[in-house]
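Propose amino acids for all 474 sites.
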């Protein structure tokens, strides 16, 4: 029997506020345990939460960027459960009336597709347990308790691990574009749970789902879903049933294992938090956020094709992250030839980042220096092959391109008479090849080119040399 996977993703994104959602404690990462705490976020009796206005503004931004309908009235609810990293015994979240609903995200795999967004709600994060097996103890760090999150829940519209990866990368990119989340997956600022079930091809009803946790990279999300599709297929083919449960992805073993039975919503005894009034948004608040919305990836992509005349694919690659888009635009700004900038960013720069396994913000070559390098190509001061050499040196030594060109004496030779002499020399030195060429062995053209490049140590302007050679060999 053929089974069709059904996948829905829940994303928790930490918002980039300076302070927590219901108290004034700092949200700074990496502080000593419990340095960022106060009576409110440690859940002391008698304290009262006060909502951080910036959290709401960020949630509205995320809602607008994902085409959600914003609820002018929303509520905070208590989600009750016990865990040592949750001192209050409940998490303040939004349940019945979230801030936003009914949105979508456009993704592209082989064809474009819309993935529905069920809801976006605001909530507080829990703390963290630090296990110390050597001394058989665990410790609690409450720095993260009360740090603001939005949870973005997708409809079960995703059908393949690939689509899940594309959706997540797009969502990640959008949250960074609108500057509400730093997107750091290692620090847990962007976390994803994947829900997956199978159903017989053609069946309408969904099958029983498993929820996968501990997916801390895009690659792991795709791998975990693929594994789970295989596992559930096997369960069903054996005539058994998939159990509704939470499963943990183990990246070292490349498999998921059962963690616990999946709780149902009613297990949490959700109820409206009596310490917080309903949140009412006035039109002005929403309009102000709307006015402040930056250009989103899809808009930027279409502007790049129009303004810089880039191919759609190139525009897509260059707008895939805000850092890359900014790097490209900064590089291209002083150049006449925008495609030159696009090509060099996509091949040379991205190639270097890939091979070093670093991100663009960690690039040893920044946009202004990269742009200088390309300006030298455009001004015919160096040719493309010399520019590659200069770039490699920039990566290694962090020197500016002008001084590398001087030091290595890489200035392009484009002096007409100087090149003409060299072309003549090469022709005189290789009479046999000249004869063969004239008798139809035109492939030898590159042989002559090679000789001239050798004489100039790769610095000759290839266009001028081609022209000169053609004339002389006629
Ligand atoms: P929770 O996991 O907290 O109970 P929800 O009921 O809102 O939350 O569902 C969470 C996610 O599970 C959503 O992204 C939804 O699209 C997805 N989902 C629901 N049912 C299925 C199913 N049968 N198969 C796969 N995904 C599903
Ligand atoms: Mg869930
Ligand atoms: Zn606090």
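Proposal:
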């Amino acid at each position: 029997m053929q089974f069709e996977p059904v996948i829905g993703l829940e994303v928790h994104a930490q918002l980039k506020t300076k302070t927590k959602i219901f108290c004034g404690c700092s949200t700074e990462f990496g502080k000593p345990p419990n340095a960022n705490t106060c009576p409110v976020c440690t859940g002391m009796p008698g304290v009262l939460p006060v909502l951080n206005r910036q959290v709401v503004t960020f949630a509205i931004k995320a809602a607008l960027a994902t085409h959600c309908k914003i609820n002018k009235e929303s509520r905070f609810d208590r989600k009750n459960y016990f865990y040592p990293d949750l001192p209050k015994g409940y998490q303040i979240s939004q349940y019945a009336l979230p801030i936003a609903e009914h949105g979508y995200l456009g993704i592209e795999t082989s064809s474009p597709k819309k993935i529905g967004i069920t809801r976006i709600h605001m909530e507080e994060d829990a703390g963290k347990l630090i296990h110390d097996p050597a001394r058989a103890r665990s410790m609690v760090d409450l720095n993260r308790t009360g740090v603001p999150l939005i949870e973005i829940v997708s409809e079960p519209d995703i059908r393949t691990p690939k689509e899940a990866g594309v959706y997540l990368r797009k969502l990640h990119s959008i949250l960074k574009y609108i500057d509400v989340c730093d997107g750091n997956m290692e620090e847990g600022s962007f976390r994803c749970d994947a829900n997956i079930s199978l159903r017989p091809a053609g069946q309408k009803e969904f099958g029983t789902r498993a929820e996968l946790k501990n997916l801390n990279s895009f690659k792991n999300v795709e791998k975990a879903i693929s594994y789970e599709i295989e596992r559930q297929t096997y369960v069903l083919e054996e005539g058994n049933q998939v159990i509704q449960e939470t499963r943990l992805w183990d990246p070292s073993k490349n498999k998921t294992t059962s963690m616990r039975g999946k709780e149902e919503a009613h297990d949490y005894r959700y109820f409206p938090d009596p310490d917080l009034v309903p949140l009412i948004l006035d039109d002005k608040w929403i309009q102000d956020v709307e006015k402040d919305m930056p250009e989103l990836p899809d808009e930027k992509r279409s502007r790049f094709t129009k303004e810089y005349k880039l191919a759609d694919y190139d525009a897509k690659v260059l707008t895939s992250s805000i850092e890359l888009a900014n790097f490209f635009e900064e590089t291209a700004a002083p150049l006449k030839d925008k495609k030159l900038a696009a090509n060099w960013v996509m091949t040379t720069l991205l190639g270097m980042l890939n091979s070093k396994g670093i991100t663009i913000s960690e690039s040893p070559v920044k946009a202004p220096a990269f742009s200088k390098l390309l300006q030298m190509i455009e001004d015919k001061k160096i040719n493309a092959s010399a520019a590659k050499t200069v770039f490699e040196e920039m990566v290694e030594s962090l020197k500016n391109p002008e001084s590398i060109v001087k030091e290595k004496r890489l200035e392009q030779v484009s002096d007409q008479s100087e090149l003409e002499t060299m072309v003549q020399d090469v022709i005189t030195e290789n009479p046999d090849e000249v004869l063969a060429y004239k008798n139809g062995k035109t492939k030898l053209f590159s042989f002559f080119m090679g000789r001239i490049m050798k004489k100039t140590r790769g610095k000759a302007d290839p266009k001028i040399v081609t022209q000169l050679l053609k004339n002389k060999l006629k």
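The CA atoms of residues 319 and 325 lie 5 Å apart. Residues 295-408 form one domain.
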